[in-house]
Amino acid sequence: MDAALIGQGLLSGLLFGGVYSLMAVGLTLIFGVMRVVNFAHGDMMVWGMYLAWMLATRLGVDPYAGFVLCAGGLFVVGFVVQRTLVDRIVDAPHEMQILLMLGVALVLENAALVAFGPDPQRVRSALTASTLWLGPIFVDVGRLVTFGLAVLLTGALYLFLARTPLGRSVRAAADNPYGALVIGTDVRRVYAVAFGIGAACVGAAGALVSPILPFQPAGGLSLSVASFNIVIIGGMGSLLGAFVGGLLVSVAESMGAVFLAPSMKELVSFSLLIAILLFRPAGLFGKGSA
Amino acid sequence: MSTLLRLEGIEVGYGDLTAVREVSLEVRTGEVVALIGGNGAGKTTTLRAITGLLPVRRGVIELDGQRLDGLSPSRIVARGLAHVPEGRQLFPTMTVRENLELGAAGREARARRHETLEWVFRLFPRLQERNRQLAGTLSGGEQQMCAIGRGLMARPRLLMLDEPSLGLAPVVLKTIFETLAEINRTGTTILVVEQNVARALALSHRGYVLENGRIALSGSRDELLASGHIKQAYLGL
Ligand SMILES: Nc1ncnc2c1ncn2[C@@H]1O[C@H](COP(=O)(O)OP(=O)(O)OP(=O)(O)O)[C@@H](O)[C@H]1O
Ligand SMILES: [Mg+2]
Fold this sequence. Notes:
- Chain A is mostly helical and 290 residues long.
- Chain A has helices spanning 3-34, 41-59, 63-89, 94-116, 126-129, 141-163, 165-175, 177-182, 187-209, 220-234, 239-259, 265-279, and strands at 131-134, 137-140.
- In chain A, strands 1-2 form a two-stranded antiparallel ribbon.
- Chain B is built from eleven helices and ten strands.
- In chain B, α3 (96-103) runs parallel beside α7 (140-152).
- The interface between A and B is medium-sized, with 16 and 27 residues.
């Protein structure tokens, strides 16, 4: 086992982690604001991938530019899903929320199946073909750009929440929905915006990963599970936790592929989950009681 | 003096329970009006109905002659009403400054928020010192100041307070009530819900007594202070 191989694994894992972070940031935002677990998260991501694929194949838009439109499209999906469906069950017991969100997941998955068929697809981008060499380690330019954009988007989301009036209202509604209502916040609108942004994050993640990973309609569930895993590791509702957790899980999986076998990916990330929960039951950045 | 807030025969409840019935009251521009009553009398329910947080089943609510009942809380707040709720209901993981700025919701309030913030800091210098502290780590008195400040940031025509004295030490309570008097002197009309009847009446021009969801008594401060019923049931004299 030589150092270059390990370095290669670390770097590839880290670069891919940006996508994981973005997926998890979207999920944790939705959970943090509405206390609703978006079981359709992975299916929304798959739709982000297919939107990128359509833009690339029909209109010739490179996914590294088209991801903006994919994020916009998924924002609308999230906004509408919140306004028409989730809004009715925000205060309902968890099992009802789970049923509804699983229903949304099924609808999205089957709609993709009808629209695109069951076969795996992949988007071509000029960037994925090129590589850079850092001494003995090669850098996949596609992954590098994906990582950079994912970090940029997470940063933009952070600034939105910290600095803008609407972003502050999102945080206020997450902190104390009744308090937000009392001071005249349109909490339903804020919820719809938050759900829309969460969906936009995962839609962008889908578009950005579409040149790297093949995808198919049935892939949503495992992407949802991967997102939950990261969110729990990072601490439910914590944006920083989701971001760091995404990088951590990706690096761990990549190391697992180096030291064990590529097929051990899930085993590694779930082991990491269990190990972290043993020591920090609320997750890395979670504020809940131990 | 013109009527700013008018309630006419309102009925409000939760499910099968009717918590407030046939309540009529009015607050005139420039006044401080107290709404007093014991636990479960329906005071909070009345304020929540005014802000649109609970539907009014019967009756009319008007602010400055315009119907409020049926509007959403965000519309009602935009009409110039600020509600400082029971239990403060601050945003605990946000700073004092952020809590205050969130109060400046409407277009005009937002445009004037720097000026209003200075005013709030003059009224409550303690809030300026704690500017960057998380609201959840404030003392009870400071939290109440923050909640009132957040209400003022909306530049309300009517400020409604739900038990501002709750859980406060006498010294802090005195400061806060003095500040409320000053807020009223500088032109803000106030409707204050209280169980601390002596404090509330000392601040108010007039008052209403709510018992079992109905108005049992009303009158000027002096009339209420002279009433045998008030003396016996609320002042323990
Ligand atoms: N969310 C609720 N669901 C059902 N009943 C409620 C609810 N909130 C209040 N009530 C009932 O409505 C009645 C009036 O309550 P309300 O909170 O308005 O009283 P209050 O005068 O504010 O009392 P306190 O001084 O204790 O705050 C009470 O009988 C109470 O039990
Ligand atoms: Mg009350």
